[in-house]
């Protein structure tokens, strides 16, 4: 995304990517967790001219389908027909962006090179799959190297970046709900949630009628991953907690032990740049947990914000400083709201009082367009900054 926007501004861009080139590979292999595309991400894809490539495989989700012992209830996301979010496959989205970036003559893509740190003069050190080390002649460097960013670590060692990492005590594991007789086994236009108070299972639709299901569960203690040691343990746990979902997952035990157990956490950083030489962007600066569906959307909004600042001119030092100044209050706000939304998804949605308040808020919004619920401000109103959305919701 960022390479496309920079190339449009006339910059020569070299992209160093840790993974191999996915073109011609099996898109179903590797990390497959679905992404929730909402208004902020859509605005970024529009800015980059890529939205038309993405929408054919984006599946609209009207709301949360909350599964309980008493059945299932659809809780709509918004009050207007166009207020939906979209399930998009990570691999297909990556491919669309890579192909779009590669069409620019002033963009060079170099795959299979992982950032390992910075030299004393702020050049990025990289290692290829064979272990060979090289130094990138990038001026400046924009580091989008993820939540475990080696570039951020290098800035922290120098005292430029001050980093606070808050790991979540819950991990996740991806599973699959296959199509049944060639048709989706669940409503294909909803995000499905099986909330269980301290943990939950969710499922997002894919093209072809399958669903990517994700179990979010404590790492240790009662009802935790450490208790699920054998196939019988897994089957018994799902039969007890998610019997309806278990009936739709014929490969549950095999997938559970073959698929990796992922970790979650929040990264708060102060000091996102080293003068005009290096800038942290996306998860490298502000990784968040996925429970508001805003990680990708927030990073795409980073790209749009940086593009806007570059359009105004000024030195890179000035642009990078303004970027951090404008974005950090908003990224801190969405980090907190994402953590709060985990409690809502796994627990609060079961509360009759929550449903009553949600219905009342939707009624107010229909009569007063300014009375927008916080969820809608975050997901459907990119003109409202995250920090403003959180502040407005806290004063109600």
Secondary structure elements and pairings:
Layout: H1 2-8, E1 13-17, E2 34-37, H2 39-48, H3 51-54, E3 59-61, E4 63-68, E5 71-76, E6 85-89, H4 90-102, E7 107-111, E8 113-118, E9 124-128, E10 133-136, E11 141-143, H5 150-157, E12 162-177, E13 191-195, E14 200-205, E15 211-218, H6 231-241, H7 243-246, H8 252-258, E16 261-270, E17 273-274, E18 278-280, H9 283-286, H10 295-312, H11 316-346, H12 352-367, H13 374-380, H14 386-394
Parallel strand pairs: 1-7, 4-13, 11-18
Antiparallel strand pairs: 2-6, 3-6, 4-5, 8-9, 9-10, 12-15, 12-16, 13-14, 14-15, 17-18
Helix pairs in contact: 2-10, 6-8, 10-11, 11-14
Short description:
With 396 residues, the protein is α+β, with helices and mostly antiparallel strands. The chain is built from 14 helices and 18 strands.
Fold and architecture overview:
The protein has 396 residues and is of the alpha+beta class. It contains 14 helices and 18 strands. It has helices at residues 2-8, 39-48, 51-54, 90-102, 150-157, 231-241, 243-246, 252-258, 283-286, 295-312, 316-346, 352-367, 374-380, 386-394; strands at residues 13-17, 34-37, 59-61, 63-68, 71-76, 85-89, 107-111, 113-118, 124-128, 133-136, 141-143, 162-177, 191-195, 200-205, 211-218, 261-270, 273-274, 278-280. Strand 13 and strand 14 (200-205) form a beta hairpin. Helix 2 (39-48) packs across helix 10 (295-312), helix 10 (295-312) packs antiparallel against helix 11 (316-346) and helix 11 (316-346) packs across helix 14. The longest helix is centred in the C-terminal third of the chain and has 31 residues, at 316-346. The two termini are 36 Å apart. The mean pLDDT is 93.
């Amino acid at each position: 995304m960022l390479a496309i926007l920079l190339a449009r501004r006339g910059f020569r861009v070299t992209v160093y990517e840790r993974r191999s080139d996915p073109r011609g590979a099996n898109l179903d292999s590797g990390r497959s967790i679905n992404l929730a595309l909402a208004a902020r991400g859509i605005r970024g894809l529009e800015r980059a001219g890529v939205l038309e490539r993405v929408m054919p495989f984006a599946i609209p989700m009207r709301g949360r389908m909350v599964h309980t012992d008493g059945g299932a209830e659809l809780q709509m996301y918004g009050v207007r027909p166009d207020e939906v979010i979209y399930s998009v496959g990570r691999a297909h989205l990556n491919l669309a962006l890579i192909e779009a970036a590669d069409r620019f003559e002033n963009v060079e893509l170099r795959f299979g090179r992982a950032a390992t740190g910075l030299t004393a003069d702020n050049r990025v050190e990289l290692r290829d799959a064979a272990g060979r080390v090289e130094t990138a002649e990038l001026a400046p460097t924009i580091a989008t190297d993820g939540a475990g960013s080696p570039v951020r670590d290098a800035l922290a060692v120098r005292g430029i970046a001050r980093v606070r990492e808050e790991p979540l005590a819950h991990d996740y594991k991806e599973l699959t709900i296959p199509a049944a007789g060639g048709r989706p086994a669940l409503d294909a236009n909803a995000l499905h949630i099986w909330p269980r108070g301290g943990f939950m299972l969710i499922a997002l639709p894919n093209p072809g009628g399958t669903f990517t299901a994700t179990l979010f569960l404590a790492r240790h203690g009662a009802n935790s991953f450490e208790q699920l040691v054998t196939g019988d343990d897994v089957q018994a746990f799902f039969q007890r907690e998610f019997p309806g979902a278990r009936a739709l997952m014929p490969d549950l035990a095999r997938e559970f032990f073959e698929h990796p157990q992922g970790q979650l956490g929040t990264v708060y950083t102060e000091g996102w740049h080293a003068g005009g030489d290096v800038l942290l962007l996306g998860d490298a600066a502000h990784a968040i947990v996925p429970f508001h569906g805003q990680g990708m959307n927030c990073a795409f909004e980073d790209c749009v914000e940086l593009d806007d600042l570059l359009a105004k001119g000024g030195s890179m030092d000035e642009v990078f400083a303004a970027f951090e100044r404008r974005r950090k209050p908003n990224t801190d706000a969405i980090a907190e709201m994402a953590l709060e939304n985990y409690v809502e998804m796994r627990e609060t949605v079961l509360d009759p009082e929550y449903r009553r308040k949600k219905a009342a808020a939707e009624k107010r919004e229909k009569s007063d367009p300014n009375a927008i619920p916080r969820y809608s401000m975050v997901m459907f109103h990119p003109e409202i900054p995250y920090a403003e959305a959180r502040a407005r919701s806290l004063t109600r």
